[in-house]
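Appendix C: a fully annotated inverse folding record. The material below is reproduced so that readers can follow the format used throughout the book. The structure is listed first as tokens, followed by the designed sequence.
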């Protein structure tokens, strides 16, 4: 009898833990990842090419923000940003006219930072605006993180 109670308790605990693990996937992860099941049957999450590019652009823009705020030299436009037009998305149907328009606005604003460094702050914030406008429609998860990039 004790073994049966112990077995049932273990089964309930296992099911409960599985549900909590499933609930821990955030909006951001859902937008940025593809789900794959490995050979052991565990679900693994793999970042899409676009998600990885956006993560890199975020890091680059954090550094750029610091340089703009300090009045340092801006440097050169990072050419890998152009990959935004070709990077593979988790859901390729998201790459539509709206996305392409916002991506073009983002790239233009980014290029202007390097071409017109006197107005770098304005151009930088315009680029962040384009990111947020796109994410409001396509994938809202990263918006709070993106907003942290604004230069006050």
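Designed amino acids, in order:
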């Amino acid at each position: 009898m004790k073994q049966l109670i112990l077995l049932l308790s273990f089964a309930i605990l296992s099911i409960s833990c599985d549900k909590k693990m499933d609930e821990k996937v955030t909006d951001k992860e859902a937008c940025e990842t593809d789900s794959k099941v490995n050979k052991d049957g565990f679900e693994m999450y793999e970042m899409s090419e676009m998600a990885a590019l956006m993560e890199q652009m975020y890091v680059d823009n954090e550094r750029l923000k610091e340089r703009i705020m300090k009045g340092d030299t801006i440097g050169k436009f990072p050419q890998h940003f152009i990959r935004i037009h070709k990077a593979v998305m988790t859901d390729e149907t998201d790459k539509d006219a709206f996305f392409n328009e916002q991506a073009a606005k983002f790239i233009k604003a980014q290029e202007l930072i390097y071409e017109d460094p006197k107005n770098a702050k304005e151009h930088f914030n315009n680029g962040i605006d384009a990111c947020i406008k796109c994410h409001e429609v396509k994938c809202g998860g990263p918006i709070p993180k993106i907003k942290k990039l604004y230069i006050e």
